Amino acid sequence: MDLVYVVIALALVQYFIFGALVGRARVKYEVPAPAMTGNEIFERYCRVHCNTMEQLIIFVPAMLLFGYYINASAAAVLGLVFIGGRFLYLRGYVSEPSRRGMGFGISMLPLLILLLGGLGGGLWSLFG
Fold first, then answer.
1. Closest CA to 81 of 48, 50, 113
2. Spatial distance between the Cα atoms of 66 and 85, rounded to a whole number of angstroms
3. How far apart are CA 24 and CA 98, in angstroms?
4. Which of 29, 50, 106, 111 meets the CB 3.0–4.6 Å disulfide criterion with 42?
5. What CATH number does residue 22 fall under?
6. 32 secondary structure, DSSP code
7. Would you put residue 32 in left (φ > 0), alpha (ψ -120 to 50) or beta?
């Protein structure tokens, strides 16, 4: 499970970095706190950060469940794919929001596998 914990920590580091990018964009595009709007590029960074937080709520427990019930190494690999997808999502969304699809898909597929695998593993353990 150590690999699972490391990948979760990497995802949290990524989230921290995305937050720092929001802060940098706030200064660069002169969007004073607590405003969440005011410059389109700032808003894109902010939206990526918020969307990543929304995904982490599912990602972290799904990683733990999948790693525990199915396979920790597979969970770690799927988690790394998720993290890579989040970087592609950031790059695509900030450059042009319509280009976020590939990064979104690359991060959603492993998330779905982790979630359904963890649920299935828990049910199998309970009833199997």
1. 113
2. 19
3. 23
4. 29
5. 1.20.120.550
6. -
7. beta
DSSP letter (8 states) at residue 128: -
pTM for the predicted model, two decimal places: 0.95
pLDDT tens digit sequence for 48-89? 999 999 999 999 999 999 999 999 999 999 999 999 999 999
Question: How far is it, in rounded angstroms, from Cα 50 to Cα 19?
Answer: 9
- Cα separation, 52 vs 46, in Å, equals 10
Distance CA 44, CA 23 (A): 12
Number of domains in the chain: 1
90: Cβ–Cβ under 8 A, 6 or more apart, which residues?
Answer: 18, 21, 48, 103
84 is in which domain, residue-wise?
2-123
